[in-house]
Amino acid sequence: MTNQPIDLSTHTIKVKLLNHLAQELLTPLTSVLGMASVLSQEIYGPLTSKQKEYIDVIQDSSRSLRSLVEEILELAELDDSAFAIKRTAVDIETLCQQVVNTLLQPASKREQEINLSMSPGPRIWLADKDKIQQMLHHLIFSVIQSAGAGSTIKVHLFRKEDGINIGVWVFHPWLGESLPHAKLYSDYLFKAEADSSSRSNSDSREIGLEPQQSQPVKGSQRLTLAFSELATLVAQNVADTAPVLAGYGARERLGLLLCCQLAEIQGGQISIQGSPESGYRYVLSLPCTNATELLEG
Question: Is 45 exposed, middle or buried (0-12, 13-18, 19+ CB in 10 A)?
């Protein structure tokens, strides 16, 4: 058997070392969570109210750390080979629910809720599960970090014949429905879409994010987020003044950048759609094959 060459470039060594360190962090974190859980059940005796409060803090902090470590491990796996498309049969409803479940705690810490809705349609699609999971996680997380307290992060799954669309936006009882910092780029969207107004009347119906409305929203715009353009903004340190990135932290910007790259690799895209009247939302559009009939056949 021929031995495969080992890549010992500086970047690869750093990634492998980061992967090992993150895995080693999981062991003590799991132990801390387990011990805290035993104490919270008062198996070894009753606890005072202050002790219960401290255990709750320990559990919440440990879960947050574990979530971060797991995210690091997932990112460490994204080497050049990981950008190859690996399509398998995926239950898209279950996948969306799993991603939302992992983000309930970060949302709760910011006094937010996450609402997942789905339009009728087939559940099983041929798609790259890991990449969709990564994209959804970072897209929703960036909105969580930017939205205010009392907000509801809305995630809507809409299925078409040739793929799926997933919309992410914010509802606030005082501010209505839109994306955080929408005012920063609303004028930019109008300008960018000035030459394509003929498409505006069909945008809302196409993405399927407002099925309760019989008529499409007038004046709707669409701006596709291109990876190369966003990467240039970040690399040139001008993201603070860029309309589509202003207001986001460094982590959220990089997460959004990764989302765009993974979407384009799969032949899809991430766009901002909406209007000042109806509000704006992120829309992740991915071409997929309905696998339900294939599996039944």
Answer: exposed
Confidence of residue 285 (pLDDT cuts 50, 70, 90): very high
Contact between 65 and 105 under an 8 Å Cβ cutoff? The reply is no
Q: Cα–Cα distance between 53 and 295 in angstroms, integer? A: 50
pLDDT one-digit tens code per residue, 42-88: 888 888 889 888 888 888 888 878 777 777 777 666 665 556 788 89
- What gap in Å lies between CA 287 and CA 161, rounded to an integer? 9
Tokens of 181: 């910092």
CA atoms within 13 A on the CB side of 278: 21
| Tokens 């005072």, residue located | 48
Angle between helices 250-265 and 227-235 (to 10 degrees): 150
The tally of CA atoms less than 13 A away on the side-chain side of residue 11 is 5
pLDDT value of residue 268: 94
Predicted structure pTM score: 0.74
